[in-house]
Amino acid sequence: MHLIDLYQKQDFVFSIEIFPPKTEKGMEKLKTTLEKFKYCTPDYFSVTYGAGGTSRTNTHEMAAHILHELDVPTMAHLTCTAHTEKEIDDVLTKLRNSKITNVMALRGDPTAGKDHFVQPKGGYHYASELIAAVRKHSDFGIGAAGYPEGHVENPDKDDDRKRLHEKIAAGAEFIVTQFFLDNTHFLHWRDQLHKEGVSVPLVAGILPPANWNAISRLSDMCGVSIPEKLSQALIKHESDPEVSKIIGFEHVEKQIEELLQEGVEGLHLYALNSLETVDRLGPKLKEASGT
Ligand code: FAD
After folding, report:
1. Does residue 60's CB lie within 6 angstroms of at least one atom of ligand 1?
2. How far is the CA of 90 from the centre of ligand 1 (A)?
3. How far apart are CA 271 and CA 278, in angstroms?
4. How many angstroms is it from 253 CA to the middle of ligand 1?
């Protein structure tokens, strides 16, 4: 099954992104946590791809577990980082052999210590090239990343949208966005893409800020702006983790409400493997998906 079928069939699709732990113990713990997610099972899970090492094979293992043991559709992420074309081909063959039929095709972030992405020798430079390779490999459903505030490495937002058009032309069937904390960025970006003729689903990424320290670091890294009112509240309660968490949840609950009113095709929850996040935000999203 391709995830685009869900977006075409349902008015609204609820998805959860998780990351695979590096250790066996961590993997077992996450599998147990996922069992508890089942009270608000998303329409699909997506599993991120690390920069190297065991977490990469764990992406495959976790995606297969979700698909075959929990019986929930799954998308495995894949990046260009530190891979040759042949290695990418091998990963795709393994995914296909495990009946994982959806891939989120990404470039990946610069490796640790580097301030820019270095094209791997014999590998791909941009996500659009990887998307074309996935499309050529076999019949995968393909998602790609979008940036309502522009990608952090590209100061020219018009050019960044042009790059998104290239990813769609290469075969991306739907776009999942970077998280944002001010809906106007997403709504404006969506309007512009629609005006430019984009008709694939544009899925909003939602991440509840846990506290000031974490969200300010992440926002800097990802080029995401923090609304003044939210930053003031988080700074004021910097030393109180519980209050900070509530501020973050209340902020994204308002975002979700407005995005649903704006007829967003899907919401992608960056759950960071947290049961608390899914317990708090999942039921509303599940209700909206009507499944
Ligand atoms: P691209 O689309 O290739 O864009 C990268 C940069 O190059 C942009 O600045 C773009 O404007 C520019 N560009 C693109 N094409 C061209 C061109 N032809 N010429 C010149 N410039 C060009 N990272 C991981 O490591 N693992 C994950 O699992 C993961 N999951 C993610 C999921 C989502 C929903 C999102 C939004 C991001 C995720 N990321 C993940 C992070 C992602 O890898 C980074 O944001 C990365 O820096 C860019 O990836 P991309 O696929 O958007 O790259």
Report:
1. no
2. 21
3. 7
4. 27
Annotated catalytic sites, by residue? 17
Claim: this prediction has a pTM higher than 0.90: yes
Q: What is the enclosing helix (H) or strand (E) of 185? A: helix 183-195
The residue whose C-alpha atom lies closest to atom 22 belonging to ligand 1 is 163
Q: Which run of H or of E encompasses 243?
A: helix 241-261
Other CB atoms within a 10 A radius of the CB of residue 31 amount to 16
What pLDDT tens digit does each residue of the chain (291 aa) get?
999 999 999 999 999 999 999 999 999 999 999 998 877 889 999 999 998 777 899 999 999 999 999 999 999 999 999 999 999 999 999 999 999 999 999 999 887 777 789 999 999 999 999 999 999 999 999 999 999 999 999 989 999 999 999 999 999 999 999 999 999 999 999 999 999 999 999 999 999 999 999 999 999 999 999 999 999 999 999 999 999 999 999 999 999 999 999 999 999 999 999 999 999 999 999 999 988
